[in-house]
């Protein structure tokens, strides 16, 4: 049975940090995972290695970001398998972005449906068939 709630977010966070430690030699100092409906976002802070910081201070932040992008593409399959295993849902898209200042990395997963235990409010345009024709207001879709 898939994990839900805080246990799911903690396990996602712990596994992503562990992957980074394993492959970079160190992980981020701070990591936080958010789950909203069919979107999972993990924000990792202070994760650049000493060599990456040296390159950035030497005026080569673009080379560091390019290397990080390449690494995340290599990790895409591992991350995707892990998220699918933990949530019981299929990953439709994985997006990863590293940022120099502040030092952070964002890992995002768009799922094929809502992650159990999390929801969102979707407003439907008033002209759609799902809207309430009498008052012209959008009907919330949960």
SSE diagram, text form:
Blueprint (H helix, E strand, L loop, with lengths): L4 H20 L5 E7 L2 E7 L4 H8 L3 H27 L3 E9 L4 E8 L10 E2 L16 E2 L1
Antiparallel strand pairs: 1-2, 2-4, 3-4, 5-6
Overall pLDDT level: 85
Record the strand order, biggest sheet.
Answer: 1-2-4-3
Poorly predicted runs: none
Q: How many structural units, i.e. domains? A: 1
Helical proportion, percent range: 25-40%
Cα shape? globular
Give the class from helix and strand content and strand pairing. Answer: alpha+beta
What's the total count of β strands? 6
Distance between the termini: 23 Å
List SSEs in N-to-C order.
HEEHHEEEE
Number of helices: 3
Gyration radius, to the nearest Å?
19 Å
Taking the sheet with the most strands, its summary is:
4 strands, antiparallel
Beta-strand content estimate: 15-25%
Task: Give a short summary of the structure.
With 142 residues, this protein is an alpha+beta fold. Helices cover 39% and strands 25% of the residues.
Model description:
The structure is a single chain. With 142 residues, this protein is an alpha+beta fold. It has helices spanning 5-24, 50-57, 61-87, and strands at 30-36, 39-45, 91-99, 104-111, 122-123, 140-141. The strands form 2 sheets. Strands 1-2-4-3 form a 4-stranded antiparallel β-sheet, covered by helices on one side. The protein starts with a helix and ends with a strand.
């Amino acid at each position: 049975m898939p994990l839900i709630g805080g246990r799911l977010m903690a396990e996602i966070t712990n596994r992503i940090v562990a992957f980074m430690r394993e492959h970079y030699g160190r992980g981020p100092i701070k990591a936080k995972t958010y789950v909203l409906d069919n979107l999972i976002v993990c924000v990792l802070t202070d994760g650049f290695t000493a060599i990456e910081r040296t390159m950035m201070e030497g005026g080569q932040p673009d080379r560091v970001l390019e290397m990080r992008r390449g690494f995340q593409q290599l990790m895409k399959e591992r991350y995707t398998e892990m998220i699918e295993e933990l949530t019981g849902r299929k990953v439709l898209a994985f997006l990863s972005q590293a940022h120099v200042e502040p030092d952070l990395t964002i890992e995002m997963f768009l799922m094929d449906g809502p992650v159990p235990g999390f929801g969102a409010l979707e407003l439907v345009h008033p002209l759609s068939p799902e809207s309430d024709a009498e008052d012209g207001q959008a009907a919330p879709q949960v």
